[in-house]
Amino acid sequence: MPCRLVLVSLLAATLPLISQTLPTGPHTEIEAFNLRLEQATRNMDNAAMLALWADQGISLLPSTKPIVGKAEIAAFLDNATAQIKGATMEKFEMTCHDIDISADTATEWCTEHQVVLMPGGKPPFDGRGKMLLVLKRGADAKWHLFREMWNQAESN
Amino acid sequence: MPCRLVLVSLLAATLPLISQTLPTGPHTEIEAFNLRLEQATRNMDNAAMLALWADQGISLLPSTKPIVGKAEIAAFLDNATAQIKGATMEKFEMTCHDIDISADTATEWCTEHQVVLMPGGKPPFDGRGKMLLVLKRGADAKWHLFREMWNQAESN
User: Fold this and answer.
1) Which domains does chain B have, with CATH numbers?
2) Which residues on chain A are in Cβ contact (under 8 Å) with B64?
3) Sign for the pseudo-dihedral over CA of B119, B120, B126, B130
4) How many CB atoms lie within 10 A of CB B14?
5) Predicted complex ipTM
């Protein structure tokens, strides 16, 4: 009994340490990924956005040809930023739902709300949309955006 | 050596039989799923469409609230059909790309072209779109539609 007591005490003493140092599991990793995606979008930080994509990533946007591979995605982001030069993101909020993980693949769907202040006295852009995301765990053990589609949210 | 020869001959004789009777693998199964989805849509066969969905399936359509679960999907299909009563699908073509399989989850993206003849002398609807699909293998070992999003194709 004394032996067991010592063991229990040792476990009790080390558990908080273990929970701080052990990997947190794929669900928590994907929640962290979502925060990085939200922050990169909010900051209009193309380099940070691109770093979240898989090399073979595909983005499917409305009325737009499929954007296939990291090089095409980089060019699209650069072009989109150039089109709204001087604009600033006043608000970007994203909420994701129903994370589902199967081996090295995860899917989730998200809703987003963005308010972009436009230069030259143009009215701000206030838009809401939905996203379907597929994430893939890479050789670097990190999750990357593998496939993304967006469409507009319902009107209120 | 004679023994090995017999074995090789036996294998050579049975291989065609094995290839006809063994399961065909998930990639081929998903191609077959796509054909069923294409046919059900072409036939505007709501029962056949619904049979392809997972119980917890989610459909994400533009300007529409997320449609969550088979009961909501059934109601949406019934309502959509009622809205265009008398319409017939003249053409529905779907081509899917980059099937990716991870354990019980598969993803692919598709392009589609539909021409719907409308009743009452209305002009036909001729539309093109893209889809991001997530399929899940169910307890019945069959693939089902787990998540679907659609948006419009690029203009020509």
Assistant:
1) 24-152 (3.10.450.50)
2) 154
3) negative
4) 11
5) 0.85
A11 has a pLDDT exceeding 80: no
B154 three-class SS: coil
By the 8 A CB rule, do A116 and A124 touch?
yes
Burial B67-105 (b: 16+ CB within 10 A, else e): bbebeebbebbeeeeeeeeebebeebebebeebbbbebb
Mean pLDDT of chain B: 89
DSSP element (H, E) containing B51: helix B46-51
Measured CA to CA, the distance from residue A138 to residue A87 in angstroms comes to 33
Q: Does the CA dihedral B22-B27-B30-B32 come out positive or negative?
A: negative
Residue pointed to by tokens 């209305």: B122
Q: What percent of chain A shows pLDDT beyond 90?
A: 81
Tokens of B74: 């059934």
Of A78, A26, A8, the residue nearest B102 (C-alpha): A26
**Among A76, A105, A152, the residue to mutate for chain B (most B Cβ within 10 A):** A105
Burial classification of residue B147, based on how many CB atoms lie within 10 Å of its CB (0-12 exposed, 13-18 middle, 19 or more buried): buried
For residue B153, which residues of chain A lie inside 8 Å, CB to CB? 63
Q: Which of A113, A110, A106, A109 is nearest to A136 (CA)?
A: A106
Q: Across the interface, which of A58, A65, A98 has its CB nearest the CB of B154? A: A65
Over residues A119-145, the pLDDT tens digits come to: 988 999 999 999 999 999 999 999 999
**B80's tokens:** 């959509």
Q: Do A134 and B107 touch (CB under 8 A)?
A: yes
Cα A59 to Cα A37: distance, rounded to the nearest angstrom: 14
Residue count of chain A: 156
Q: Which residue type occupies B9?
A: S
